Amino acid sequence: MQIDHVHFYVEDASKWCNWFQRNLSFCSLATEINQHTHTEIITSGEIQFRLSSPLNIDSPVANFLQSHPPGVVDIGVVVDDVAGVVDRVISSGGKILQPIHDYQGIKSAKIAAWGTLSHTLLEKNSLFSNSLFSNNEIESNFPEQSIYLGIDHLVLNVPQGKLSQVAQWYQQIFHLQPQQEFLIKTENSGLCSQVMVHPTTGFQIPINEPTSSNSQIQEFLDLNHGAGIQHLALRVQDIIQMVAKVKGEEINFLQVSPGYYQNLALKPDLPLNSEEFASILEQNILIDWQAENSRSLLLQIFTQPIFSQPTFFLELIERRCSPEKGAIPHQGFGAGNFQELFATMEQEQLRRRG
User: What contacts 188, CB < 8 A, 6 or more positions away?
Assistant: First the structure.
């Protein structure tokens, strides 16, 4: 199982197509227009986003936006056996939104997931196939190399008490395995999280549930009117350079508390020289590393919400390792980073509420 594309519903597909091109170096791949919906398809390397907006009230996007803020509605995933996944969904009592369909040798189907989220299933040989789209205007001027290594993970927020059920569903349907667990607390609220990982491809989907009614996870659920994708992480080669490149009037990042860096500076095993640490502090990047391998670094930064409601944001992530032969990058998530992110988002939530 691996990601093929991520589909957003937005008010204005052209506007957001231009936004991703202008701010995050995406390229336009195709435009698809039918009687009721306008879709822009953009790409950078292996990453492909679909951005759909309504042309009239008959559009499913119009119906969605009447009850939900803009955001991710579908994650297209490549699987080895579409029919096998569909059979498991039916056996579990799940819902098939689109039955198995074979178009020009590409087998696909769509299943309901959680809240308004669905998964489009694609056979393995259909990865990034342009033949999925008809009546498109295809652009051909792409940079030879993307600034992104791919989508690192997507985070799914679910109602309190549903975390175990949702994790078990992903294990049953897609054979994802439970990895790290987190219980994050502040003086005001908290969350529980279970990271689910595909054992072969490394596909990761952390699943969060709130532990209190005032948690920012609960705020998401209230504003989103149910479960959904809270953020998506873009993996980069050099996060310091990337943040300096994209930071501007249209992209603002969450501000980390000074105490976070003061505590890091006191650690004797900090695997950064003074110049690197100063650059990371200046850019407000979170840092974590594994005790058994201090050169295996996890570097993360999070944008402010990009849509009108505080329900979706982006993450830039770098998984760095030492240059020694056989060295493995940091594959998981650090509790320190997770704690700081939650605390920072909670402060943003309190500011919004005045």
Answer: 212, 214, 346, 350
